[in-house]
Amino acid sequence: MVSMFELYLIRYFLAVVETGNFTKAAEKVFVSQPTLSAGIKKLESQVGHQLFERGRRRVFLTEAGSKLLPRAKAIMHECNMATQDLDKTIDTPVLRLGLLMTLSSRIVSNLLKKAQKNMPNVAFELIDGTEQELNNRLDERSIDFALSLDRGHKAEFGVTPLFTEGYVFAVDKGHWAAGKAEVSGEDMADQNMIVRSRCEVLSETSRYFTDRNVRPRLTYRTTNDERALRMVEAGIGGTVIPESYARDDIASVKLKGFDYTRKIALLHPRYQMSDRLEEAAKGFIKALG
User: Which CATH class is domain 7-69?
Assistant: First the structure.
């Protein structure tokens, strides 16, 4: 095994780990899939071991890959720390903020307006990601905070709770359920359904209908929540959304017995920042807390 390898190969490796898929990993690091695949092969050649088992839909770490993972994260961590040290020479402190993809744009916008109003001399660098991607970035110190889900994190992250919200079923204004306070799962039999594939309660939603022997007709599946809501507005189908997604051009109704909630929080790793960045971070936590 060679003692050094290029940093971009580590980024490729971590991207595949985060996404579980070569195509998605390539999109994440802004290269073509053949380029990323060639990079992984080069890294495997350098370390002298196969790092991934290729499945039909996902790739999985081999034993060698699992051993490399914490070292790879440590390498990225040190590189990001070096960048942070260099940033000390910049007059305006920059807070790197990860944004959970399933947070409504309105909520994110309102929180950032509040932060910027209270912190006019701090700049923000924003990065979208899934829950796992944001956790990994916090571990690597490539972001300073994440607006994400509070899963009861203990030692690894500090947590500033922001709000808790439930879920509703969104339909178009002309739908028979529009205007009702609550409908049952049985009422949804043979109704058109849009699937938000990144929804945190996707499996719970499926189980909710299955337990009631209901099979809604799936008309659209998307990772884009804004697109999903536009399709709801167009009457293509209904979908389960967090309460904060509610808007004037669609109707929101409670599903009887669907009582799941999610806790949104500001997550921050427990490590020492530079003095100037630490001061900005404390101001950010205070502004949102």
Answer: mainly alpha
